Amino acid sequence: MDIKKNSANIVSVVRVFVAFGAIALLFRHTFKAYALSFILTAIAFSMDAVDGYLARKYGQASQLGAVLDIMGDRIIESIYWIVFAVLGWLPIIFPIICVARAFVTDGIRSVALTKGMTPFGMQSTPWGKYICASKFMKTSYAVAKVAAFMLLILAFTPCEKFNMMSIEPVAVVLAWIAIIFCVVRAIPVVAESGKLFE
Length: 198
Hints:
mainly alpha
């Protein structure tokens, strides 16, 4: 495989392993492990912007790249919600909503791919394009999600000198905002899916 021609796809795959490393550290329950998890989480989510930048800059945009990007997003997002629920930091409803939404939207988008559409290109209405593909909606969702994840890690970091639990309510509010964005951004995919089955 030509690394230079596939740099965006390589970043998409590597960031999943970075996120797995960050999550694994949360079960160590030490300050150092949580600090490293916080840093790796920031890196994993930053890499999402890097793969898109590389794809645009070097003309590597492709259906495979779009699928890898979305697949990476789903895996990373799901493992964080699931682990936070397992650790008791969030209610179980968060990963349930996230995983159910992923199955629904990605199932529909897989049909769109068979018809030659890109995952975000299947939206044909202005409101559908805005909710699913606009920079504002994508950025707002990403910021709420990443801020929630990172603040949750901070809130539960074992530390004798500082009590970080005061951050927890803010993290939970951001988690609710993120999960609402998650659901709202699925609505156009479902609403406009009828044309795929005609």
